[in-house]
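Intended use. Records like the one below are meant for learning the mapping from a protein sequence to its folded structure. Do not use them to infer anything beyond what is encoded.
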Amino acid sequence: MAVETKTPAAGKAASDDREMLISGSEACAEALTLADLDVVTAYPIRPYDTVMQAIAKKIANGQLVAEYIVAEGEHSQFEIVKHASTVGARVFCGSSGVGWMYAMECLTVTPPLRVPMVAMVGNRALDDPGAFGVEHNDALSVRDLGWMLIWVDTAQEMLDTTLLAYRIAEDRRVFLPCAISADGAFLTHSQTIVQVPTRAKVDKFLPPYNRGDLQLHPDNPITVAPQANEDWVIEIRRQNNEAMNRAYTVIEEAYADFRRIFGRGPENPWFEEYMTEDADVILMGMGTISLPFKVGIRNMRAKGMKVGLIRPRWFRPFPTEKLVAALQPAKAIGVIDRDYSFGSPFGSGVVANEIRAAMYNAEKRPPLLSFICGLGGREVTLEDVYKVTDLCFEAAKSGKSPLKTQWLGVRE
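Structure written out for the chain above:
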């Protein structure tokens, strides 16, 4: 349950932020309320369902005026909001694990239609066997479909990123859907203190959604999703790719405006760097996996070991040049995936393979080690962190990249 821990002082209610003890899902609902959402669809699957519950309470309490449509499944959910967006509604939807996969047909056709919907993926393992802990393969399944993809690490980042996602997706230069990935349970359910901005600040940052001449309306008779056949498919794919390329500029503009208006936010939108200034070994991992690694890095730094962490935020579009530049000084790189890619080169995770591809043309290519851990919500221990780091230092000393991907914390 959301708890307001600090209210604005008397006489400053209209201008001061609120401080609340809320979960990542509740932080998302706060942002959706401030964004003046029009249409939300719902179908329960944990851990994503906590967002639905939080939005439903907002509407029931009169804090948000929006259409709340309960669908009979995830496939219908995404179809409803897709069509609502074409008539000019700001929409929200989402799911987790196999629910996200059940909507795959709709997820596939949304980017070519240039529908800038925002969705949340409460990251969860893909059944079978029945498991509800966090993995990243659900969200990564749309990495090649034209969705923008971002991973968040804290409830504050969840709120801020939701506002940023609408600003970026609805920019006419982009007009692509954006999925925000939040680790199930670790982030969706855990409460922390969050600064909730005023509506006045949000209105200054986030303009109303405007589809312009693409808005479906009786006064603007246009065709949406016509049958194009093979005559136009490659042109449509090319246009989507160009929109994704334009997103690089739009993302940097949006974060700069966010910092100016809200007084917080990262200078580097693309990834967080932690103790990397003089690091011989740089570790990488997305989402809440950063927490045990930051603790381990502080402990190792106290012993004089030069190790740091890069936590990627944006996965699509992928910040190739900036990431390569940040990794150049390292003597070894360790990529920790909370996902897998069966049969991929070296049996690595998805992120490790992306980093290898990004580094291929780099002037300097430090040894890169691939690790998979924390699948299904398995605890990532400090012993895991130390093992990863020790192997990376060995590779830095030898200058060679072990080809074998290491699976950590597996019962033999």
